[in-house]
Amino acid sequence: EVQLVESGGGLVQPGGSLRLSCAASGFTFSSYAMSWVRQAPGKGLEWVSGISGSGGSTYYADSVKGRFTISRDNSKNTLYLQMSSLRAEDTAVYYCAKDDSGGLSSWNFDYWGQGTLVTVSS
Amino acid sequence: SYELTQPPSVSVSPGQTASITCSGDKLGDKYACWYQQKPGQSPVLVIYQDSKRPSGIPERFSGSNSGNTATLTIRGTQAMDEADYYCQAWDSNTVVFGGGTKLTVL
């Protein structure tokens, strides 16, 4: 059974940093691209960042480029999102999501974690 | 940057057909997929590659994509289908979501 479990969310002050983790199990982690998707309270889904299965290719939304860094440790089956220079508008539930296609990424997401809440406030 | 536009809300009577549209420039040249999200839950993929259903998704869900519009169709809509629906596509190395459509079954 595929499981994605996020952790690391919490309350952080504007300008601060936070690292999110997503522990994956139930599939060959290194074979699948992964993404982070966020959802501000009462709002829609917003893709944040994606990474290829090998970790060699990374992609970012313009809204976080230069502030967030996605990475993965395939030996630990774990996806990360390092967030810095956080702003109030980064407040959201952050989901990790698995690509539905091994090999050539489709950037469709067939499994999602339960999400972790990040609140940026003083 | 690429944009996908959805109607904010769609209403349907139980047992009838609901259609939710997603518009974007030359969207038909890309693959579109759809997610269902119920309150307090994570999104669920219901259609991928324009018209394919993941295992476990009921046959009443179908999709199409042509020109500038992708459409999610739910035939014989049930009360359990009431949810937010999001379209999504991949463009220029970024994932793009539509703004979401709240489907009300009444």
Question: How is the quaternary structure best described?
Answer: heterodimer
Strand fraction band of chain A? over 45%
Coarse morphology of chain A: globular
- Major sheet attributes of chain B: 6 strands, mixed
Folded structure, characterized:
The complex is a heterodimer of chains A (122) and B (106). In chain A, 0% of the residues lie in helices and 50% in strands. Chain A has strands at 3-7, 10-12, 18-25, 34-39, 45-51, 58-60, 68-73, 78-83, 92-99, 109-112, 116-120. The mean pLDDT of chain B is 97. Chain B has 106 residues and is an all-beta fold. In chain B, 0% of the residues lie in helices and 47% in strands. In chain B, strand 5 (61-66) and strand 6 form a beta hairpin. Classes of the chains: A mainly beta (122), B mainly beta (106).
Quick recap of the structure?
With 122 residues, chain A is an all-beta fold. Chain A contains no helices and eleven strands.
Topology:
The complex is a heterodimer of chains A (122) and B (106).
Chain A: E1 3-7, E2 10-12, E3 18-25, E4 34-39, E5 45-51, E6 58-60, E7 68-73, E8 78-83, E9 92-99, E10 109-112, E11 116-120
Parallel strand pairs in A: 2-11
Antiparallel strand pairs in A: 1-3, 3-8, 4-5, 4-9, 5-6, 7-8, 9-10, 9-11
Chain B: E1 9-12, E2 18-23, E3 32-37, E4 44-47, E5 61-66, E6 69-74, E7 83-91, E8 94-97, E9 101-105
Parallel strand pairs in B: 1-9
Antiparallel strand pairs in B: 2-6, 3-4, 3-7, 5-6, 7-8, 7-9
